[in-house]
Write a structure and sequence with these properties.
The chain is of the alpha+beta class and 304 residues long. The protein contains seven helices and 17 strands. It binds pyridoxal-5'-phosphate.
């Protein structure tokens, strides 16, 4: 779906017109994949747009930069404020938000130490990533032939732009083969996550989700779902999952900022009961929580 432009983009402390938010072709991160980014959503609430777990997302942006080894020239609070201003400037009741910190124009070569760090924050309207009816219908998953990064190759815990070449390879392979999304295995063959989502699988009544050590991003939706599931009385474990656990799962779903909670209806053409009862219950509470309609999770929704 093409990006729907809004009016302004925040760049290095100032708002610039959407069409003027440009970089030089010799921008360092464009060549070496060294940018770090976040994907965040703001939802319409009775108190105006509320940004779901904004503080946690901005903290993760700083963690990603720390892992890559550069310093963002703002504080967490300054970027929280800038993100809120960007959403307010758009006038949108709900939107997807993309903060990006990248090494800018002026240096070239693999030594990143002398590079300047630029920051941009954009937002625009963006619907359900895996389809409007992904909870009920479910998505068709394929185990990718592409392996998730090893921790000592490209740290999977950092949302670096370069890491997503791996995700794009897997996504396009899955789409070309007629599936909706790919599941990535870690170098040791265990399930890591999907190209842009974490995964939960039910086995013997327990929901399992892979740990960071398996190569998963520490998902903010994954954490929210974990809390919601436990509050609903379900047993949840962060634990390793084997490929065969997926094939015989009682139910399974993916979750992430873009995809929210989406059921899995099959993996490698082995059907999985869909939508599962735990998935449905979690998706329903999550749907209300992100819109500030659940008192116990109101702190997750950060109003402007
Ligand atoms: C590779 C990957 N895994 C998991 C997630 C889910 O993370 P979150 O729930 O914080 O959006 C994302 C999305 O950011 C992702 O890109």
């Amino acid at each position: 779906m093409p990006i729907q432009p809004t009016e302004k983009i925040w760049m290095n402390g100032e708002f610039v017109d959407w069409d003027q938010a440009q970089v030089h072709v010799l921008t360092h991160s464009l060549h070496y994949g060294t940018g770090v980014f976040e994907g965040i959503r703001a939802y319409e609430t009775s108190d105006g747009p509320a940004i779901f777990r904004l503080t946690d997302h901005i903290r993760r942006l700083f963690d990603s930069a720390k892992i890559v080894g550069f310093e963002i020239p703002y504080t967490v609070d300054e970027l929280i404020d800038a993100t809120k201003q960007t959403v307010a400037a758009s006038g949108l009741p709900s939107c997807y938000i993309r903060p990006l910190a990248y090494l800018g124009y002026g240096e070239m070569g693999l030594n990143t130490l002398p590079c300047s760090v630029d920051v941009a924050i954009a937002c625009w309207p963006w619907g359900a990533y895996l389809g409007d009816d992904a909870v009920q219908q479910g998505v068709r998953m394929k185990i990718s032939s592409w392996t998730r990064h090893d921790h000592n190759t490209m740290p999977p815990a950092a949302k670096t732009t370069g890491n997503y070449v791996n995700s794009s390879l897997a996504k396009v392979e899955a789409l070309n083969a007629g599936y909706d999304e790919a599941i990535m295995l870690a170098p040791n063959g265990l399930i890591a996550e999907c190209t842009g989502e974490n995964i939960f699988v039910a086995r013997q009544g327990t929901l399992l989700t892979p740990p960071i050590s398996a190569g998963a991003l520490e998902g903010i939706t994954q954490n929210s779902v974990h809390v919601i599931a436990q509050d609903l009385g379900f047993e949840v474990k962060v634990d390793n999952i084997a490929r065969s656990d997926l094939y015989i799962a009682e139910e399974a779903f993916v979750c992430g900022t873009a995809a929210e909670v989406s059921s899995i209806n099959s993996v490698d053409d082995r059907s999985i009961p869909c939508p599962g009862p735990m998935t449905l219950a979690i998706a329903e509470v999550f749907h209300r929580a992100i819109r500030r309609q659940e008192d116990r999770y109101k702190d997750w929704c950060e109003t402007l």
